[in-house]
Design goal:
The complex is a heterodimer of chains A (about 350) and B (about 500).
Chain A: E1 17-27, E2 32-43, E3 48-52, H1 59-67, E4 74-83, E5 86-87, H2 93-99, E6 104-107, H3 121-133, H4 137-150, H5 156-159, H6 169-182, E7 187-191, H7 199-216, E8 219-224, H8 227-233, E9 236-241, E10 244-250, H9 251-256, H10 261-268, E11 318-319, E12 328-329, H11 340-359
Parallel strand pairs in A: 3-8, 3-9, 6-7, 7-8
Antiparallel strand pairs in A: 1-2, 1-4, 4-5, 9-10, 10-12, 11-12
Chain B: H1 2-8, H2 13-19, H3 21-47, H4 51-60, H5 64-85, E1 101-102, E2 108-109, H6 117-150, H7 157-166, H8 169-186, H9 188-191, H10 196-201, E3 207-212, E4 217-222, H11 223-228, E5 243-244, E6 250-251, H12 262-298, H13 300-315, H14 318-328, H15 341-368, H16 371-378, H17 383-420, H18 431-438, H19 448-475
Antiparallel strand pairs in B: 1-2, 3-4, 5-6
Helix pairs in contact in B: 3-5, 3-6, 4-5, 7-19, 8-12, 8-19, 12-13, 12-15, 12-17, 13-15, 14-15, 15-17, 16-17, 17-18, 17-19, 18-19
Classes of the chains: A alpha/beta (about 350), B mainly alpha (about 500).
C-alpha cells in the first residue's frame, strides 16, 4: 500500500519502530469505535517522537496497540507495527511477552497507580530485573539501588525498601521509569508521564528522560496533550485528532509554522502565548467518536477554515508545500502552492486509492 | 534508633535476628516451653484426622504395584506422627483424672487429689483454656516483638488494621468465641469426660471401676452398661446439666438419650464441625480465588462461561444434590470418613464456590483495572504471576472475610443435614445429631440435649460473623461503624 506519502525519508527499513496504517477498533455492543484509524509514523533509535492531541484522540490506544495491550472488545484490524523489522501485529501472547519490557517498555500516566501499593518499590524493580536480566537476591537489590540512583533518587539504599506511599509524586514517576529501565528496553513509550506532576517536577522528569536517552540510545515515543511538554522533549511531532494523525513535522517547524487548523488552534490555546489581558483562544466543540471509516474531514465541524469540500472529501497526509520539507498535514488546504480545486481533487483521488487498497 | 536501623536494613529477617538476638530468643524460649507442654496434644489433633481411611481409600483404587510401596512410604509419617501424638502432655486426662469412684464414706478414689470428678474436670478445663489464652497471647507478643525490634518499616498498613480491630468490640467478641471453639476442637480429647473411643464409639470394650455397695467391693463394669443406666429420657429418667450418674460419672452438660456424655460428644463434634468448615471453605475459597483473579484478568468469554457455570451450580438445589450424593456414595470409602463428614465437606466445598466467587469477583475486577496491572503486563510479567501478585492480594482479604462468614453457613448446613439424618451418621459426634436426638425431649427435663448444642451452633455461627465483620471494618478505614447491608452475604445453610 502506498500510504507513506511523506514519511519516505524515514522508512528506509532500519527505523526502530515503524507503524503503518494502524487501525485499532473497539467493537462494543452499542457501536464500533475506530479509536485509531490508519496512522503512520516512525521512531528512530535515539529519537523522541511526540504524539500530541486532545483527550479521546486515540493517543493511549496507539501506545497500547504497540505494546499488545489491546484487550477485548478492542482489536487491531489493519496495518502493521514493525519493530526492528518484525511485524508485531498478530503476535501470540508469548511472543508479545518477549517484546514487552525487554524490547519496548512503557511509563504510565499516573505514577500513584502504576506502582502496586502493597509491594516495596525495590520489590517491583527487582521483579522486572528477575524477568529481564535474571538477577535475584542481593544482586538484584544492588542493581535496583543503582537504577534508582540513575533516575536521580537520593538515598537509594534506603528508598529501595520503601513503599510507594512513602514516595512523592515525582519520586514515584522516577521509580516507574527505573522499573522500565530495569527491563533494558530499546524503545520507551511514555504515556503522559508528566501529566500528574507539577511543572517543576515535570521539567526534572523531562530532563531525566533526555539524559537517559543519550546514555542508552533508546527511542522514545512520548504521548501528551501538553504542547509545552512536547516542545521541550520531542524531535518530531505527530498531532492526532479523532484517531488520525493530522499533522506531522519536526518540532521547530511545527511550532514556527503550524499548518493544520487544528494544530494552530492547539497552539493558540496555550496560556502565556497570548498577550496579557487577551482572552485565551479555544477550539469549540469536542473530539468526535469515529465509528465509521471517514468520508469527510473529522475536524471540519470545529474548523474555522472549513469549506464545502471538507464535508465531502477525506483529506490524506500531504506535504504542505512542494519544496520537500518533511512536514505533512491532512487538510484539504494543502499543498498550499496548488489551486484549491486541484488540491481537493488530489486528496479525493488518494483517499479513494486508499479505500480501494483496504477493500482488497 | 535510626542509626541502629541503618545497620540491618537490607538484610533478611534471620540476619536481623542474629544481630539482635535478645528479644527473639526470650520470646522463642517461652514459646518453646509452651509448645513442649502440649506438643502431644497438637500432634494428637493432627493425627486424629482420618488419614488412614483417606489414604487407604485412595490406595485401594491404585494398582497393587503402585499402592503397596506407596503405602509403605506413607506409613512412615504415620508412625512418626503417632509417636509424637503419644508424647505425654501436661493437661491430659491422665494427669488430672476425673474418672474415679466414690466410697460409701463419700471419699473419692482415682480422681485428681481425691477431688470430686466435677472439680477435677473443672480444674482441667480452666487449665486448658488458661493455657490456650497464654499461648495465643504469646503469639500476639511475638508479633509485637517483631514489630518493635525486627521490622524495618516504622509503620505498615497492617498496623492500622490491627489498631482498628483492637477498637472493635463486636469483632473481638466474635474472635474470643471462635478461639474458644477452636481450642475446644484442638483439646477435645483432654476436655472431654472420657475419650470418644471409650464413651461413644466402643463403650463395651472399655471398663470403669465402681464401688458396689451390695457386694461391698470395687468391681469393674463396661462403659456400655454404665451408659445404659445413664440415659436421659425426659420424665422417666434424666441426667441433666451438672449431674452425676449411677456409676459416679460427672456429666457437665448431662447425658444423651443413649447415656453418652453430651459434653464429650460436643467437644468432639466441634472437631468435626471445624474440620468440615475448614475443608469446605478451603476448597470453595481456592476455587473462588483462582476463578476471580483469572476472570478479572481475562474478562470476556472466560468470565461469561464462569458466570453460566456458577449460575448452574447455584440453580441446583443444594440440599437435594447433597442427599443424592450421600445416597450414591454411601458405600464409597469417602463416606466412611467421619461417617460422611468428609463427603459433606467436599460437597459443601464444591457447591459453595459460586457464592464466594460472586462476592470477590467485584473486588478482583476493581483490582484488575488498576494501572499497575497494565504496568506489570507492560514489562512482560507472565499471566499467572501477574494475577497472583497484582490482583490476588486485593481480593484475598475480601475472600477471607466472606469465607469466615460462610463457615457459619456450612456449620449450620452440616448440623441441619445431620439433624435430618442424611449428613453425619452415628457414631461420629456432631452437634446436629445431638439436637436431633433430643428433639422429642425439648419440653421435658431432658431439654439440655437439643438446647445446649443448638445454643453452641448459634453462638459459633454468630461469632464467626462477628469476627469477619470486625475484620472487614478493620481492613476498610471507610467502613467505621459498619454498614449492615454489607454483612448480609453470610451463607445460609442447607
Amino acid at each position: 500500500m502506498s500510504q507513506s506519502f511523506a514519511t519516505e525519508a524515514n522508512t528506509d527499513g532500519d527505523a526502530l519502530l515503524q507503524v503503518e496504517n494502524l487501525q485499532t477498533v473497539f467493537f462494543t455492543d452499542k457501536e464500533t469505535i475506530r479509536a485509531v484509524d490508519g496512522i503512520t509514523f516512525d521512531v528512530e533509535r535515539g529519537e523522541t517522537v511526540g504524539i500530541v492531541g486532545e483527550s479521546g484522540s486515540g493517543k493511549s490506544v496507539t501506545a497500547r496497540s504497540i505494546m499488545g495491550l489491546i484487550k477485548s472488545p478492542g482489536k487491531i484490524v489493519e496495518g502493521s507495527i514493525k519493530y526492528k523489522g518484525d511485524d508485531l501485529v498478530g503476535n501470540s501472547e508469548s511472543e508479545w511477552r518477549d517484546i514487552r519490557g525487554g524490547e519496548i517498555a512503557m511509563v504510565f500516566q499516573d505514577p500513584l497507580s502504576s506502582l502496586n501499593p502493597v509491594y516495596t518499590v525495590g520489590n517491583q524493580i527487582k521483579e522486572a530485573l528477575r524477568l529481564h536480566q535474571g538477577l535475584t537476591g542481593q544482586e538484584a537489590t544492588q542493581e535496583a539501588i543503582e537504577l534508582l540512583e540513575s533516575v536521580g533518587i537520593p538515598d537509594a539504599p534506603r528508598r529501595v525498601k520503601e513503599y510507594p506511599h512513602e514516595f512523592s509524586g515525582g519520586m514515584r514517576q522516577r521509580a516507574v521509569i527505573a522499573t522500565a529501565l530495569a527491563c533494558e528496553p530499546d524503545l520507551l513509550i511514555c504515556d503522559e508521564p508528566t501529566t500528574a506532576l507539577d511543572v517543576t517536577i515535570q521539567a526534572q522528569i523531562l530532563d531525566l528522560l533526555k539524559e537517559l536517552q543519550e546514555e542508552r540510545d533508546i527511542g522514545i515515543m512520548f504521548i501528551t496533550h501538553d504542547m509545552g511538554v512536547i516542545a521541550e522533549i520531542a524531535d518530531r511531532v505527530n498531532v492526532m485528532y479523532a484517531g488520525e494523525i493530522v499533522e506531522q513535522a519536526d518540532v521547530e517547524e511545527l511550532y514556527e509554522n503550524p499548518q493544520h487548523p487544528y494544530t494552530r488552534g492547539l497552539l493558540k490555546s496555550i496560556p502565556g502565548r497570548t498577550e496579557r489581558g487577551e482572552k485565551l483562544a479555544t477550539i469549540e466543540g469536542e473530539v468526535p467518536t469515529a465509528s465509521a471509516p471517514a468520508t469527510d474531514c473529522r475536524f471540519a465541524p470545529r474548523c474555522p477554515e472549513a469549506f464545502d469540500g471538507c464535508e465531502q472529501v477525506h483529506p490524506v497526509p500531504v506535504e504542505v508545500s512542494r519544496n520537500g520539507s518533511d512536514h505533512t498535514a491532512s487538510c484539504l488546504l494543502y499543498p498550499d502552492d496548488v489551486p484549491r480545486d486541484e488540491a481537493v481533487e488530489m486528496h479525493r483521488s488518494r483517499s479513494t486509492a486508499t479505500e480501494e487498497a483496504i477493500d482488497e | 534508633m535510626s542509626a541502629y536501623r541503618e545497620e540491618f536494613e537490607d538484610k533478611p529477617l534471620l540476619d536481623r535476628v542474629r544481630d539482635n538476638p535478645g528479644p527473639a530468643v526470650r520470646w522463642a524460649i517461652v514459646l518453646a516451653v509452651l509448645l513442649a507442654l502440649e506438643l502431644g496434644a497438637f500432634f494428637n489433633f493432627v493425627m486424629s484426622m482420618p488419614w488412614n481411611m483417606a489414604i487407604g481409600g485412595i490406595l485401594s483404587n491404585l494398582p497393587a504395584g503402585v499402592a503397596d510401596p506407596l503405602g509403605a512410604v506413607l506409613s512412615v509419617p504415620a508412625i512418626i506422627g503417632d509417636a509424637l501424638a503419644s508424647i505425654p502432655t501436661l493437661l491430659s486426662r491422665d494427669l488430672i483424672p476425673n474418672q474415679g469412684y466414690q466410697m460409701p464414706s463419700g471419699e473419692w478414689r482415682g480422681t485428681f487429689l481425691g477431688l470430686a470428678p466435677a472439680y477435677a474436670w473443672a480444674i482441667r478445663v480452666i487449665l486448658i483454656y488458661g493455657y490456650a489464652a497464654v499461648a495465643l497471647y504469646w503469639v500476639w507478643r511475638g508479633y509485637l516483638v517483631f514489630r518493635e525490634h525486627y521490622r524495618y518499616a516504622d509503620w505498615t498498613p497492617t498496623d492500622d488494621v490491627v489498631e482498628r480491630f483492637r477498637g472493635h468490640r463486636w469483632g473481638q467478641f466474635g474472635m474470643i468465641i471462635v478461639a474458644a471453639f477452636v481450642v475446644m476442637a484442638i483439646f477435645a480429647p483432654s476436655l472431654g469426660m472420657a475419650s470418644t473411643e471409650q464413651n461413644i464409639e466402643e463403650p463395651y470394650s472399655h471398663y470403669k471401676k465402681i464401688y458396689d455397695e451390695d457386694m461391698g467391693e470395687v468391681r469393674e463394669v463396661t462403659i456400655g452398661t454404665a451408659n445404659l443406666a445413664a440415659q436421659s429420657q425426659g420424665s422417666e429418667q434424666n441426667f441433666g446439666v451438672g449431674s452425676y450418674d449411677k456409676h459416679d460419672r460427672f456429666h457437665p452438660f448431662g447425658t444423651l438419650t443413649n447415656g453418652k456424655d453430651l459434653f464429650t460428644f460436643m467437644a468432639h463434634g466441634a472437631r468435626i464441625s471445624l474440620f468440615i468448615g475448614l475443608v469446605s471453605i478451603g476448597i470453595s475459597g481456592s476455587i473462588a480465588l483462582a476463578l476471580s483473579i483469572l476472570t478479572a484478568y481475562y474478562k470476556g468469554l472466560l468470565d461469561l462461561v464462569t458466570v453460566v457455570v456458577s449460575d448452574s451450580f447455584q440453580a441446583m438445589p443444594r440440599l437435594l444434590v447433597l442427599i443424592m450424593f450421600s445416597v450414591v456414595l454411601a458405600d464409597h470409602w469417602v463416606s466412611q470418613i467421619y461417617n460422611g463428614g468428609l463427603l459433606l465437606a467436599l460437597l459443601f466445598g464444591l457447591w459453595s464456590w459460586p457464592g464466594l466467587w460472586r462476592v470477590v469477583r467485584g473486588p478482583a475486577f476493581q483490582a484488575a483495572e488498576n494501572e499497575w496491572v497494565d504496568a506489570a503486563e507492560s514489562y512482560g510479567q507472565p499471566t499467572w504471576d501477574l494475577v497472583k501478585t497484582h490482583i490476588a492480594p486485593f481480593t484475598f482479604t475480601y475472600l477471607m472475610i466472606y469465607a469466615s462468614m460462610s463457615i457459619g453457613g456450612v456449620m449450620i448446613g452440616t448440623a441441619g443435614l445431620s439433624f435430618l439424618g442424611i449428613g453425619i451418621t452415628a457414631p461420629t459426634p456432631e452437634w446436629g445429631r445431638a439436637v436431633a436426638m433430643g428433639q422429642n425431649y425439648v419440653t421435658t427435663q431432658s431439654w439440655h440435649m437439643s438446647i445446649l448444642p443448638g445454643i453452641a451452633v448459634t453462638m459459633v455461627v454468630v461469632a464467626f460473623n462477628a469476627f469477619s465483620d470486625g475484620l472487614r471494618d478493620a481492613r476498610d478505614p471507610q467502613s467505621e461503624g459498619g454498614g449492615a447491608d454489607e454483612v448480609s452475604a453470610a451463607g445460609g445453610g442447607a
